[in-house]
Design a protein that fits this description.
With 228 residues, this protein is of the alpha/beta class. The chain folds into two domains: 2-81, no CATH class; 94-226, 2-Layer Sandwich (Nucleotidyltransferase, domain 5), CATH 3.30.420.10. Helix content is 43%, strand content 24%. It has nine helices and eight strands. The strands form two sheets. The protein has a six-stranded mixed sheet with strand order 3-6-5-4-7-8. A two-stranded antiparallel sheet has the order 1-2. It is globular, with a radius of gyration of 18 Å.
Length: 228
Amino acid sequence: MLLSIDRVLQLIAEGKNIEKIAELADCDAADVAVLIEEARVLLSKHEKTFSKRKVIIKKKSTENSANSSSPDQIYIKEILNGAELAAIPVNTPLTMNVGAVSNGNPGHAGIGIIIFDQEDRQVGKVSDYIGKRTGPSAEHISFLRALKLALYFQVSELKIRTDSEAIVRQLVSEFKTKDSDILKFIKEASSLIMKIQKFKVEHIVKSSNDKAVFLAKKASEKVQDRSR
């Protein structure tokens, strides 16, 4: 079927995530992710006149679409999974509040991210179920997702606000640990942070992070809701 970049952006502005757009268009989510990536590139170049170009998208295959998806398609889909993006600007400063909830140790877990532009206006959010995780693991995934989103939108400056004191401590150069999971997180987070021109992490109290935590809690309960 035919989809235009304008139509995809309109659906995103209406709060539709990749899965919902794919369902409405009767196509694979990976193909929608590629179209969103093309839109992002065009917008970053200010080539608005090309946004009305029609793009042919094949109908959803009955086979497992992951088998035919490229690594880039899968990566983009993972980054944008559970995201509702109204009007994320590119090449500008962003602030993200990140939260995570795990209903057990490990248990069904979710992440929540609230995205603000440089005028402190909310321009997007993420509420994503991430399977069974421990609390610390969910916090790491939420933080890394925020970094990947920032790189996806080519931000010039990023501030992440988190209610996890542990994460703030772990990102300090003097932090020492032998825990393999924490070391893996520090390595990946540091690698992503190095690609951002200006970065800051800020600890906030949980009451100031209630929206992100709510989105994380909502996501963590999705599987339980479907099983009822």
